[in-house]
Amino acid sequence: MATSREIAFKASDLLPTNIDASTHKLNEMLEKSTSTSVRWYEVGAAEFRRMVYAGETQFPVPPLLPGANDDTVPSRDPGRHIPIRVYKPDNGNPSKGIYLYIHGGGFVMGSHRE
Predict the structure, then answer these.
(1) Does the N terminus or the C terminus of the chain have fewer Cβ atoms within 10 A?
(2) DSSP code per residue over the chain
């Protein structure tokens, strides 16, 4: 059974001088690659999603997993169901466990299908 633990840190841990050089390098690369590309809020979420799937942004085209199944689970609210997507191993072997990912955002950049 997994156990939880508290992670304590000081605000000074977040100072730029205390951040690892590899993190700075990654941040610089991300800033550079996204600074010249279209932003989703400039074209709207629907158009940006279309552009992502057409390969017209700096992001790679996301793979869609055809073997996944869409379903719903009942909400605590009567008549309301929550959409879910169930992924199973595609190698024919039984699953070795469960991973539950709950997304609380609005799927501006994608959807539960990715």
Answers:
(1) N
(2) ----------GGGGSGGGS-HHHHHHHHHHHHHHHTSPPHHHH-HHHHHHHHHTT-SSSPPPPP-TT-EEEEEE-SSTT-EEEEEE---TTSSPPS--------S--SS--TT-
pLDDT in tens, 37-50: 888 889 998 898 88
pLDDT digits (tens, 9 = 90+) for 75-112: 899 999 888 888 877 787 887 777 777 766 565 566 65
Greatest pairwise CA separation for the chain in angstroms: 53
Residues 28 and 52: beta-carbon distance below 8 Å: no
Residue (of 64, 69, 36) closest to 49 by Cα position? 64
**Residue tagged 């799937």 (tokens):** 53
Full-model pTM: 0.48
